[in-house]
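Late entry, written up from scratch paper. The run itself happened at the end of the previous shift, but nothing got recorded in the book at the time, so transcribing now.
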Amino acid sequence: MLWAQSPGGVSNNLQIWVKADAGTATTTDHTQVSIWENQRTGGANGIANQGIPGYYADPGINARPVYRTAETIPAFNFNPAIEIVSTNGYRSGYKFPSGFPDNTITSLTSYTHLSRTAPTAYRTVFVMNGTAQSSNTSEIAGIWQSPFFGTQTDRPEFYNEKEYGDVYFGTQTISTVGSNVPSIQSYYNEEVGGSMKYFFDNNGLAYGEPSNSVASTKNYPGLVLLMDNDGGSGSTSLAGDRIGEFILYSETQTAEERQRVNSYLAIKYGVTLSQPQNYLSSDQAVTWNSAVNIAFNHNIFGLAKDDMSVLNQTVSNSINEENNIMLTVATTNDFISPNVTAGRTSFSQDKTFLVIGDNNVQDLSLVNVGVSSIKMIKRIWLAQKTNDTGSVWLQADLSKYTDISSTDNIYMMIADDAGFTQNVEMISPASLAGSKAVFNYSFPENKYFTFGMSHQAYCTKDPATGTPDAFTRIGITGQTNIQNGWPGNVPNGFIALESKDKGMVITRTTSVSIAIPVEGMLIYDTADKCFKLYNGTGWHCITRSCND
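Output as recorded:
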């Protein structure tokens, strides 16, 4: 069955789609999750219980998952998450009503998952079971005989003791386990040579089939649990982990469909997919082309509006530690508030993307550009756009670059090539507070950009000397008495204005409100709070710069 909206536009056989930024209800103190609604159109609600029935079930409310706002977890790219907690040895969990999903499960899930500590034993993320294993149908006492998926130490694992025991995915390790960043982890199965093979995918990198094949075509209908479970070891290895999103399909997706789901999650949560790999929109269009310049397939993040995916990321940075959270982009001049904050503006057109990657250069020294007075950092970004993104805001935290001082003139440098030799633009900051420089720019097309400085003071052009060759013929005045010879005594002008207590007010509007701008048009943008000039390709805030 097809649903109207879905992750990455992959709607066929979608069963469960829960995410922390939608459909959540909390207890009266706004911390513990009391309900987490399935966002699949036409789906039943999921219920966050007071612990998971069965093993380690806590009858008290303290076992409920905890809602973490975006302010408390910046690693989730300005989005909230649900945190698993541990109380008196009990772990919190999440289960759906009995009999849901409504189809037999033959495929597994994609989800975002924040690992806070390296596991010492089993880290089970979800369990599927068709029937209860005890006389009490509300319990899952035989949990170890159900197929469940997680990791043992740092290896992805499929486990089903009843049928075939542990199935490890070779000797591969999960690179993000133990680090304080989210990762997109997927499990899926395919029938190969008459046997059902299970696969694990981490950030778009498939680990292949397990080291020992699973000769089984068993289906697992019914109850689906998202939970913490320690495999009987008595540890609390998963406590403190956070889930941003959980997605489950009842049939295995194609490779292209998995790529779309992963792309949706990667843009939303600032996760860099394993490279080289394109990012795709819900209509299968390429939004990050990894072949444009393979040197820039690092720390990928961006802004996006994709209505089919219910994706509206209006502020973003790369969550990778190598990025040092140095660059943040947003549709408004706000680099602190959560993504869902009222007042943030989205792109005006559906299927609009601004995706950015960098060359991952960690060297903090500066390099000369053209003349010795201008230097730039060695970290360079490539911005790829889909549709008209309009004017966006960029905040660069240059605090790690000790060769740049607060008295230097800071620029954002933009070019058509990574060597900064073609169509180079020097953009002055709209504001500068300490080491954080804020810029406003409308990317006309794919561009390379970085940041630099100059020790020179702002330049001015020398005035023309000699006798004026023309005089102003038109004047508008608010004065009672006009001075003798005015406005003809104003040299080389076209029109002269004067007043003691009145100012000139040009059109006050927003650049997006002007349907057909004309080159040279001036406005005061009431959204971005600056005077803007349309230069024939885009609107730009007018800032102080050299004119020679």
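Residues 255-269 form the longest helix (15 residues).
(Scratch paper discarded after transcription.)
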